[in-house]
């Protein structure tokens, strides 16, 4: 068994209304100094040792992310 | 300027319907060996150097996460 983290973030050129909303709200709540916020997704997967990196990349690209508008990265982490 | 990553994940004892849906769909799409999926959020913040770790923790806990149902972590990353 291994733990895998897949991070999915909107591409830099894509508008990110959720992130913009957070960035706009922070000063109103008294937090200054945050100049940009981007919001994405984080998936934590428990996978059998039989699942190789190529399969994980396929899962991330074809299923967890929309590669037209999102960048993704896959990494194995210590459990 | 520094880049900060805030990871927000549902607590282990909280049901995660999005993650469950992903885990249930993967075998139907031909991907076996993934035993569990949890879906959370990832925020990337650009912050001034004046923003200290205590402020970042407050932002994460009070604003980016719902600490009743979510765990969160803050880390500074290389730009």
TrEMBL record, chains A, B:
It catalyses: N(2)-formyl-N(1)-(5-phospho-beta-D-ribosyl)glycinamide + L-glutamine + ATP + H2O = 2-formamido-N(1)-(5-O-phospho-beta-D-ribosyl)acetamidine + L-glutamate + ADP + phosphate + H(+). Keywords: ATP-binding, Cytoplasm, Ligase, Nucleotide-binding, Purine biosynthesis. It is an enzyme of class 6 (ligase). It comes from the Bacteria. SUPFAM superfamilies: PurS-like. One of its GO terms (cellular component) is cytoplasm. Pathway: Purine metabolism; IMP biosynthesis via de novo pathway; 5-amino-1-(5-phospho-D-ribosyl)imidazole from N(2)-formyl-N(1)-(5-phospho-D-ribosyl)glycinamide: step 1/2. One of its GO terms (molecular function) is ATP binding. Its EC number is 6.3.5.3. One of its GO terms (biological process) is 'de novo' IMP biosynthetic process. It is found in: Cytoplasm. Part of the FGAM synthase complex composed of 1 PurL, 1 PurQ and 2 PurS subunits. Belongs to the PurS family. HAMAP family: PurS. Part of the phosphoribosylformylglycinamidine synthase complex involved in the purines biosynthetic pathway. Catalyzes the ATP-dependent conversion of formylglycinamide ribonucleotide (FGAR) and glutamine to yield formylglycinamidine ribonucleotide (FGAM) and glutamate. The FGAM synthase complex is composed of three subunits. PurQ produces an ammonia molecule by converting glutamine to glutamate. PurL transfers the ammonia molecule to FGAR to form FGAM in an ATP-dependent manner. This is Phosphoribosylformylglycinamidine synthase subunit PurS. It comes from Tamaricihabitans halophyticus. The lineage of its organism: Bacteria, Bacillati, Actinomycetota, Actinomycetes, Pseudonocardiales. The gene is purS.
